[in-house]
Amino acid sequence: xxxxxxxxxxxxxxxxxxxxxxxxxxxxxxxxxxxxxxxxxxxxxxxxxxxxxxxxxxxxxxxxxxxxxxxxxxxxxxxxxxxxxxxxxxxxxxxxxxxxxxxxxxxxxxxxxxxxxx
Length: 118
Known about the structure:
There is one protein chain. By secondary structure, this protein is mostly helical. It has one domain (3-111). The protein has six helices and two strands. The chain has helices at 21-41, 45-49, 52-64, 69-81, 85-101, 103-111, and strands spanning 3-5, 11-13. Strands 1-2 form a two-stranded antiparallel ribbon. A hairpin with a 5-residue loop joins strand 1 (3-5) and strand 2 (11-13). Helix 3 runs antiparallel to helix 4, helix 4 runs antiparallel to helix 5 and helix 5 packs across helix 6 (103-111). It is globular.
């Protein structure tokens, strides 16, 4: 699929491709998946460069969106790297609670191959 951008960066169609609701939803889902991969799963700071920053970011996200399973899972990783074992266990438990009740997040973890810490 080829989507062109106008000069004001709004989607326009190219080559006769329709920009119907299904296509818009697919574009949104693909963009959201990339966001989850880059900002959570492959977060370079969480991987060791500067663990404090993503922990603060993920805490803010978890406070704003209490059922954000990727944020809780990343918090468990960050807390573990800081040696904050009680907080890490709580974040792991919260991640598992969300995955047990949310088909949306369960599918995201499976589709994006994001490992849940045990």
